[in-house]
Amino acid sequence: MIKINVAVDNKYWQNKIHNPKKYLSKKIKKTSNIFEFLKKKNYIFTILLTNSLNIKKLNKQFRKINKPTDVLSFPSFSKKSYFKTNKQKNIYLGDIAICYEIIKKRSKKKDFIAEFDKVWVHGFLHLLGYDHVKKSDYLKMIKVENKILSII
């Protein structure tokens, strides 16, 4: 089972997503069908819905990049295999921060919710150990990302 904590530090999020925790909880529940191992233990993670100023600070502090970005992921573990071998019943996956202004700007070409879903799913996959440093890893990650987006 997957549980999610949602922190909102920017009032504009409420204009686009009335109840972010309820919205994300419904969506994340559907991802359990893709990842069998997520059904066997209790997993939890946190999403911070923030603004460009705060995400810029986080990006500078943790990645040494002094500009805002769409999403930052802070996984608790670095290997996908960790989830299969871990004996703990409750596992904290990590944290995700998402920038309102960048999602809003990108969504002018498409739906805000569709862009938001794409970004949080991408961040969630990073928490599960997916990466896109190499092209082969990128292709694997995009395949799973598209699969999740098609069922949520």
Task: Give the SSE string.
Answer: EHHEHEHEHHH
| Alpha-carbon Rg, integer | 15 Å
Give the count of helical stretches: 7
CATH class assignment: Alpha Beta
Helix content: 40-55%
CATH superfamily: Metalloproteases ("zincins"), catalytic domain
Give a short summary of the structure:
This protein is α/β, with parallel strands linked by helices.
Description:
The chain is of the alpha/beta class. It has a single domain (2-151), classed as Collagenase (Catalytic Domain). Helix content is 48%, strand content 20%. The protein contains 7 helices and 4 strands. Helix 6 (112-127) packs across helix 7 (135-151). The model has no long low-confidence stretch (mean pLDDT 90).
Keywords:
Collagenase (Catalytic Domain); 20% strand; 7 helices; alpha/beta; globular; 152 residues; 4-stranded mixed β-sheet
Which SSEs are present, and which pair or pack?
Elements: E1 2-8, H1 12-16, H2 20-31, E2 42-50, H3 52-63, E3 71-75, H4 82-85, E4 90-99, H5 100-106, H6 112-127, H7 135-151
Parallel strand pairs: 1-2, 2-4
Antiparallel strand pairs: 3-4
Helix pairs in contact: 6-7
